């Protein structure tokens, strides 16, 4: 492939990696990871609410990784309540999983930025070491893509398996019991999915630029000298 086309491909991949870093950083700061509704089970049972009457006991909840908001509905109108995970909810949520999600988000941002920098370096610079060449590009994208997958797996398990929404809804509730009526992942969660797919797409762009996948070369090609192995 001509050098000019390689530069264009690397520039596109670099821009995509930088966009992933910005998107992940923006996702961390929002409360649009989960949206749902919560049912005031105690209040509904007291009046035996059914049908349209049940809607008076269904509130709303939305939250992200750092903070969120819920609207408490127990038949007397909605009462909004703001909350933050640190330090308010650490005692009732699976803190190790939640902190791991934030940590992997940070790692994703870092390696997406590193990948963007190395893409630009390969496009306009003169790479000479292995980690400055295609092997390094594969490595940074693989790490970033893996972090995105881990974020989605860990956060999904926190929400679905550990019933995070119910734990938040029942936070500091004495006489009322709340149950999750419905919940769905919101925009910020899907941004992480898109970022993971973009990192995978960057891997295909590297291959499209003419560089073999790591460890895919045959043994016959191993006769070159060590200095040549560091070049491409």
UniProtKB/TrEMBL annotation:
Highest taxon, organism lineage: Eukaryota
Transmembrane intervals: 97-123, 135-155, 189-209
Localization: Membrane
Gene Ontology biological-process entries: actin filament organization; auditory receptor cell stereocilium organization; cell motility; equilibrioception; photoreceptor cell maintenance; positive regulation of lamellipodium assembly; sensory perception of light stimulus; sensory perception of sound
GO cellular component, one term: plasma membrane
Family per record: Belongs to the clarin family.
Protein name: Clarin 1
Species classification: Eukaryota, Metazoa, Chordata, Craniata, Vertebrata
This protein's encoding gene: CLRN1
């Amino acid at each position: 492939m001509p050098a000019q086309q390689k530069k264009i491909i690397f520039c596109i991949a670099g821009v995509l990696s930088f966009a992933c870093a910005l998107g992940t950083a923006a996702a961390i700061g929002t409360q649009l990871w989960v949206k749902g509704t919560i049912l005031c089970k105690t209040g509904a049972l007291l009046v035996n609410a059914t049908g349209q009457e049940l809607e008076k006991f269904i509130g709303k909840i939305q939250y992200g990784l750092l903070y969120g908001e819920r609207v408490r509905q127990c038949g007397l109108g909605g009462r909004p309540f703001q909350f933050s995970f640190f330090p308010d909810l650490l005692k009732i949520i699976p803190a190790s999983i939640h902190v791991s999600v934030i940590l992997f988000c940070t790692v994703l941002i870092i390696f997406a930025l590193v990948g963007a920098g190395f893409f630009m370096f390969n496009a306009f610079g003169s790479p000479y070491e292995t980690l400055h060449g295609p092997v390094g590009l594969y490595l940074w994208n693989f790490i970033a893509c893996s972090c995105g997958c881990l974020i989605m797996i860990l956060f999904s398990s926190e929400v679905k398996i550990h019933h995070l929404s119910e734990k938040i809804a029942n936070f500091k509730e004495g006489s009322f019991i709340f149950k999750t009526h419905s919940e769905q992942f919101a925009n910020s969660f899907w941004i992480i999915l898109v970022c993971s797919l973009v990192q995978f797409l960057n891997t295909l762009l590297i291959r499209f630029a003419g560089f073999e996948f790591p460890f895919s070369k045959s043994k016959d090609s191993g006769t070159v000298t060590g200095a040549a192995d560091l070049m491409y």
